[in-house]
């Protein structure tokens, strides 16, 4: 997806006018350009090199990166949702750099969407790239569309999960993953 800077700037100006603001006042004068640059920045972070390592092929235990800070945008109200992601996989001859798990989460998060879809996209991408025995993804997010509008109830977390392969078929593996992501929170 290519970001169209001029369309974003026009849209933000129209939005500001639509809510009764003066887009030429001092605090808002540069806002259309700032928003356009922000979306260009998001777009640049979606592409990354997903480097795989096959020399560690004998490792076949769970790899988990938990408490990944994540920010996204609700496609229904264009308000942020944010929280933690927990991502695990069990290698089957191939591993990736740990930072690639974080980059995967962030790359998929930086666009308007639903949390449920985001959770599945991350899991499906990792299954495709790593061809592991299984993948588990859990997102725990607060949605500002619920915290600051609608029911106006801040502090609630929405939890979604996507389990693939052995995490879905083997209850012991699933329980180990869930126990590990809870560790340190009790």
UniProtKB/TrEMBL annotation:
<comment type="pathway">
    <text>Cofactor biosynthesis; 7,8-dihydroneopterin triphosphate biosynthesis; 7,8-dihydroneopterin triphosphate from GTP: step 1/1.</text>
</comment>
<dbReference type="Pfam" id="PF01227">
    <property type="entry name" value="GTP_cyclohydroI"/>
</dbReference>
<dbReference type="InterPro" id="IPR043134">
    <property type="entry name" value="GTP-CH-I_N"/>
</dbReference>
<keyword id="KW-0554">One-carbon metabolism</keyword>
<dbReference type="GO" id="GO:0005525">
    <property type="term" value="F:GTP binding"/>
</dbReference>
<keyword id="KW-0862">Zinc</keyword>
<dbReference type="GO" id="GO:0046654">
    <property type="term" value="P:tetrahydrofolate biosynthetic process"/>
</dbReference>
<comment type="similarity">
    <text>Belongs to the GTP cyclohydrolase I family.</text>
</comment>
<dbReference type="GO" id="GO:0008270">
    <property type="term" value="F:zinc ion binding"/>
</dbReference>
<dbReference type="GO" id="GO:0005737">
    <property type="term" value="C:cytoplasm"/>
</dbReference>
<comment type="subunit">
    <text>Homopolymer.</text>
</comment>
<dbReference type="GO" id="GO:0006730">
    <property type="term" value="P:one-carbon metabolic process"/>
</dbReference>
<dbReference type="InterPro" id="IPR020602">
    <property type="entry name" value="GTP_CycHdrlase_I_dom"/>
</dbReference>
<dbReference type="InterPro" id="IPR018234">
    <property type="entry name" value="GTP_CycHdrlase_I_CS"/>
</dbReference>
<protein>
    <recommendedName>
        <fullName>GTP cyclohydrolase 1</fullName>
        <ecNumber>3.5.4.16</ecNumber>
    </recommendedName>
</protein>
<dbReference type="InterPro" id="IPR043133">
    <property type="entry name" value="GTP-CH-I_C/QueF"/>
</dbReference>
<dbReference type="GO" id="GO:0003934">
    <property type="term" value="F:GTP cyclohydrolase I activity"/>
</dbReference>
<dbReference type="InterPro" id="IPR001474">
    <property type="entry name" value="GTP_CycHdrlase_I"/>
</dbReference>
<keyword id="KW-0342">GTP-binding</keyword>
<keyword id="KW-0378">Hydrolase</keyword>
<feature type="binding site">
    <location>
        <position position="145"/>
    </location>
    <ligand>
        <name>Zn(2+)</name>
    </ligand>
</feature>
<keyword id="KW-0479">Metal-binding</keyword>
<feature type="domain" description="GTP cyclohydrolase I">
    <location>
        <begin position="8"/>
        <end position="181"/>
    </location>
</feature>
<feature type="binding site">
    <location>
        <position position="77"/>
    </location>
    <ligand>
        <name>Zn(2+)</name>
    </ligand>
</feature>
<dbReference type="GO" id="GO:0006729">
    <property type="term" value="P:tetrahydrobiopterin biosynthetic process"/>
</dbReference>
<feature type="binding site">
    <location>
        <position position="74"/>
    </location>
    <ligand>
        <name>Zn(2+)</name>
    </ligand>
</feature>
<keyword id="KW-0547">Nucleotide-binding</keyword>
């Amino acid at each position: 997806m290519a970001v169209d800077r001029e369309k974003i700037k026009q849209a933000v100006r129209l939005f500001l006018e639509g809510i009764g603001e003066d887009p030429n006042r001092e605090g808002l004068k540069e806002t259309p350009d700032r928003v356009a640059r922000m979306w260009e920045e998001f777009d640049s972070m979606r592409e990354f090199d997903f480097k795989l390592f096959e020399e560690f092929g004998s490792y076949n235990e769970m790899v988990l990166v938990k408490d990944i800070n994540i920010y996204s945008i609700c496609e229904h109200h264009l308000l942020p949702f944010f929280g933690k992601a927990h991502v695990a996989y069990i290698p089957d001859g191939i591993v990736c750099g740990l930072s690639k798990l974080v980059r995967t989460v962030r790359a998929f998060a930086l666009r308007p969407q639903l949390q449920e879809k985001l959770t599945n996209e991350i899991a499906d991408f990792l299954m495709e790239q790593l061809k592991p025995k299984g993948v588990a993804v859990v997102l725990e997010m607060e949605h500002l569309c619920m915290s600051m509008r609608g029911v106006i109830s801040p502090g609630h977390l929405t939890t979604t999960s996507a389990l693939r392969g052995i995490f879905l078929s083997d209850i012991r593996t699933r329980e180990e993953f869930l126990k590990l992501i809870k560790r340190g929170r009790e």
